[in-house]
């Protein structure tokens, strides 16, 4: 494996499975946005991997921009109050925006972000998330493109971090309990 292997319990989604799924999603996106402009908005930092790989699977010409957001308050659960650490460069009014995320956990970050971007007068706002966790299914959030629906475990890799580590794993895995207990 590699020197992070001993920190992991299991591999949930392999590098090959990610690549295959991204190609399927890209084909859907190509078809859905045919004849329309497309602006991908990646949410730093977790979305870096999926943004880079999804964009390269698309045949459709697209632009890419980035936002960095942060939930207010410490603790393990998201408060739902989000502040913008770095905003978009591009004016999205009249644009077809596709938000690209690594994971939907509580769904609070995305539901806030969708509302924020909708208020800027875009032609459309949709969401593509590599992983949707089980608990997120409760949240009122229309996610157009989902890579994988996964159980509510502590997952890392492919952009997802634990204390900023493991983002560079090319697959998605579960962290061994001894790493966070
Ligand atoms: C993580 C993840 C999503 C968000 C999902 O980002 O990348 O953006 O949390 O959580 P939610 O659905 O409960 O709101 P994080 O704030 O950890 O920043 P990061 O992307 O830099 O890791
Ligand atoms: Mn994130
Ligand atoms: Mg994080």
From TrEMBL:
It is an enzyme of class 2 (transferase). Pfam families: Pribosyltran (PF00156). The keyword Glycosyltransferase applies. GO terms for molecular function: glycosyltransferase activity. It is found in: Cytoplasm. Its EC number is 2.4.2.8. Its cofactor is Mg(2+). Keywords: Cytoplasm, Glycosyltransferase, Magnesium, Metal-binding, Nucleotide-binding, Purine salvage, Transferase. InterPro entries: HGPRT (IPR050408), Hxn_phspho_trans (IPR005904), PRTase-like (IPR029057), PRTase_dom (IPR000836). Its main location: cytoplasm. Residues 16-162 form the Phosphoribosyltransferase domain. It catalyses: IMP + diphosphate = hypoxanthine + 5-phospho-alpha-D-ribose 1-diphosphate; GMP + diphosphate = guanine + 5-phospho-alpha-D-ribose 1-diphosphate. Pathway: Purine metabolism; IMP biosynthesis via salvage pathway; IMP from hypoxanthine: step 1/1; Purine metabolism; GMP biosynthesis via salvage pathway; GMP from guanine: step 1/1. Belongs to the purine/pyrimidine phosphoribosyltransferase family. PANTHER family: HYPOXANTHINE PHOSPHORIBOSYLTRANSFERASE, HYPOXANTHINE-GUANINE PHOSPHORIBOSYLTRANSFERASE. This is Hypoxanthine phosphoribosyltransferase. It comes from Lipingzhangella rawalii. The lineage of its organism: Bacteria, Bacillati, Actinomycetota, Actinomycetes, Streptosporangiales. The gene is hpt.
